[in-house]
Amino acid sequence: METDCLEMVQLWHSRRFSRSIVAPLLLEIDALALSFLYFEIQHVIRSANLPAHLCAKHASTIGVTDRWMDSPPGFLMTSVMADRVGAVAVK
Predict the structure, then answer these.
(1) What is the reported pLDDT for 68?
(2) Which residue, among 74, 79, 82, 80, has the nearest Cα to 91 in the 3D structure?
(3) Whole-model pTM?
(4) Widest pairwise Cα distance in the chain
(5) Could you report the per-residue pLDDT of 17-71, keeping only the tens digit for each?
(6) What span, in angstroms and rounded, lies between the C-alpha atoms of 56 and 17?
(7) Residue 23 CB neighbour total at 10 angstroms
(8) Which residues are in the RNase H type-1 domain (predicted)?
(9) Are 64 and 53 in contact (CB under 8 A)?
(10) How many CB atoms lie within 10 A of CB 53?
(11) Per-domain residue ranges for the chain?
């Protein structure tokens, strides 16, 4: 798994996240990770994680749950396509 949140990666590797506000999220990730033969959390710079950043940014602006069943929404499509070919996407 890749994230641009260095603190999350450091908490994961230290296994001392019981007092962190993100502890419930890390505990859920830990439970889901048991389903895989190998699981690792790595830090990447934000520009390398642009599709996820755009989703988080969008989620912070809406007051309801949003989901996409068939294809990514327009605000995300350019970034997803660029990510697939290894290009740099426009924010």
Answers:
(1) 75
(2) 79
(3) 0.56
(4) 40
(5) 777 888 888 899 999 999 999 999 999 887 777 777 788 887 788 777 777 777 7
(6) 22
(7) 13
(8) 1-59
(9) no
(10) 15
(11) 2-43, 46-85
